[in-house]
Amino acid sequence: MQVFAILPWYDWLALLFFFAAWMGYAWFARYWGGKRPSLLATTNRYRRYWMLQATYRDPRMIDGIITQSLASSPSFFASATMIVIGGLLAALGTTDKAAEFVREIPFVTRTSMLVFELKVLVLLGIFVNAFFRFTWSMRQYTFASLVLGAMPPPAEFESGKFEREHYANRAGTLLGLAAETFNDGIRAYYFSFAAMAWIFSPLVFAIATAVVVGILYSREFGSQVLHVLRDD
């Protein structure tokens, strides 16, 4: 019970709403994406088209270059996340100075040092989660590259030795999983901005969480890019 006494009930409520919104939206995006194609589901269809076209090409140098280019994005974000994690750990080491600096920001709610450390730890947990997602995405792109490199020549597909559709779907699914994992990492970055709003007040924290969910929904289910990709 002493743990729950660290924060007022409205801070715990805001924190619960934050994690419920994050996990709830992640579930909703996967569930609703099966009924109403999302940006990720639509691009996954193009990934399978791409792998199907790759079965007709030999050599597949351009496909390898594209895969390597796609893998560079999670690599960049993983490196950037390590820098952010280092900064947050440094802030924990100098909590008194960091808390004093935050108190000078207008409209910030006055909190104890322990509460400030808890807020930094929440941010740290978010970026650690993002780091794991980005690095796993990098590995998945590596697996997809292996499947692409092991893809048989077009003649073996035409002879019936290998099933073209099955192989293309397998490679496209691997690329889709890598993209989905990368998307999870980017989503963590979005929610980290909402968590930063907790410094001001739990009400601002809850509002920022709702705003982030709204932005994510508009971009994944109602963006102009999605309409262009779905314009068959």
Plain-language structure description:
This protein has helices at 9-33, 39-54, 61-93, 95-103, 113-149, 154-158, 164-196, 202-221, 224-229. The chain is elongated and about 70 Å long. The protein has 232 residues and is mainly α. Helix 5 runs antiparallel to helix 7. The protein contains nine helices and no strands. The model has no long low-confidence stretch (mean pLDDT 87).
Task: Supply database-style keywords.
mainly alpha, 232 residues, single chain
- The proportion of residues in beta strands is under 5%
Question: Mind telling me the C-alpha Rg?
Answer: 22 Å
Main β-sheet description: none
The portion of residues assigned to helices is: over 70%
- Give the topology string: H per helix, E per strand: HHHHHHHHH
Query: Mean of the pLDDT scores?
Result: 87
Number of helices: 9
Number of strands: 0
N- to C-terminal distance: 58 Å
Query: Could you say which overall geometry the principal axes of the C-alpha atoms support?
Result: elongated
Helical/strand content category = mainly alpha
Low-confidence stretches: none
What order do the helices and strands come in, and which of them pair?
Elements: H1 9-33, H2 39-54, H3 61-93, H4 95-103, H5 113-149, H6 154-158, H7 164-196, H8 202-221, H9 224-229
